[in-house]
Amino acid sequence: MVRIAVIGAGHWGPNLIANFHDHRRSEVTWVVDLDRDRREAVTLRFPDIRVSDDAAAVIADPAVDAVVVATPTGTHFALASAALEAGKHVLVEKPMAANVADAEALCEIAEAAGRTLMVGHIFIYNGASQQAKGYLSDDELGRIYYVSMTRTNLGPIRVDVNAAWDLASHDIALASYWLDAEPVSVSATGRDWINPGVEDAVFATLRYPGDVLVHLHASWLHPSKTRDIIVVGEKRMLSFDDMSLTEPLRIYDKQVSPARTSSSFVDSLATFRMMVREGDIRIPKVPPSQPLRNECDHFLDCIESGATPITDGREGLAVVRVLEAINQSMREGGREVRIATRGG
Fold it and tell me: How far apart are CA 228 and CA 252, in angstroms?
């Protein structure tokens, strides 16, 4: 039984508490939060869990095996590093740190301590995204041209990080996982209409190896909640709608042929149609899954086996590199910014 302390009982923390406190493979022994009302809410729902406002004391508890950090981004490094140095395994919510230097330091501390460091990039543990990864790996879509990713909602508006760090971090992690690569450059623009210095909407284009383009639209000033991804390949196209519980994936047997007519220009609609293939739309069956349950189980698996998590510290560091580059590009008027990869 892995004994866990959850630090942070705000928006996302209660979900983590409920998943880990199942007495199946793990139990939550402590919950830490500075807010008294939140601590009282935890006690009402889980009377057997101890609560505290002292993170340092809980981290020092020798009975705690692992620490889950679900606090504002700016606090991630201090809490996660303290837990790792105390010999605890750590699951830290995304993004793993507020800057590249802190993210690198967390990776080094975890490796020196020989402890599991995992980042909560939950969409990678979604059954539909895993299935989509299989289609890309099996070359079902052919060479990938571009990926369009939209993640919008009306709020909640944050003041500690901008929309890219809050929302697009999910899509950066997912795109890199699907493409099995890290982006080499990014250009971005955004605006801070609500809180000065904190962009409410961000538009970014990532360039991956092989000249694959990934376009991100992240906004918390949008009339509707959208979680939509389109992958355009040479042979086929794929859509992933995370808002659809029953049919999240669709594969389009559509293609633009490279063949050319004898005419030097397309002079009729009929001629143009000869260059485009409109095939069937396939809706694959996606077994129901619980992404957070999958993520929590994977964390426990890695603690027990010593395996490297899919979303380990190095993967989390790569995402923070991209987020820093997005910020730099926005400050420099959308200039394309090179991104250092883990290989160089």
Answer: 15
- Reference 160, options 223, 219, 75; nearest CA is 75
- Residue 138 belongs to domain spanning: 124-291+321-338
Instruction: Determine the angle formed by the axes of helices 313-331 and 169-179, rounding to 10 degrees.
Output: 120
Phi-psi map region of 232: left, alpha, beta (phi>0 left; psi -120 to 50 alpha): beta
Distance (Å, whole) CA 137 – CA 179:
8
pLDDT in tens, 141-194: 999 999 999 999 999 999 999 999 999 999 999 999 999 999 999 999 999 999
- The span from the CA of 77 to the CA of 101, in Å, is 10
Per residue in 42-68, pLDDT (tens digit) is 999 999 999 999 999 999 999 999 999
Q: Mean pLDDT in runs of 10 for the chain (344 residues)?
A: 97 96 96 98 97 98 98 97 98 98 98 98 97 98 97 94 97 98 98 96 98 98 96 97 95 78 56 67 94 98 98 98 98 96 64
Q: pTM here?
A: 0.93
**What is the Cβ-side half-sphere exposure of residue 316, based on CA atoms within 13 angstroms?**
34
- Which residue, of 94, 123, 152, is where some domain finishes? 123
- E strands, the chain, in order: 2-7, 26-32, 50-52, 66-69, 89-93, 117-120, 144-154, 185-191, 201-208, 212-219, 221-233, 237-241, 249-256, 276-282, 337-338
**Total number of domains constituting the chain:** 2
* CATH number of the domain residue 47 falls in: 3.40.50.720
The answer to whether 219 and 202 are in contact (CB under 8 A) is: yes
If phi > 0 it is left, if psi is from -120 to 50 it is alpha, else beta; for residue 273 that is alpha
If you search the block for the tokens 């899509």, which residue do you land on? 171
CA distances from 127 to 81, 82, 131, 240 (A): 31, 33, 6, 11
Question: Does 130 lie in the same domain as 58?
Answer: no
Q: Residue 121 is encoded by which pair of tokens?
A: 């990039």
Q: Is residue 134 part of a domain?
A: yes
Q: Which of 123, 152, 178 is the last residue of a domain?
A: 123
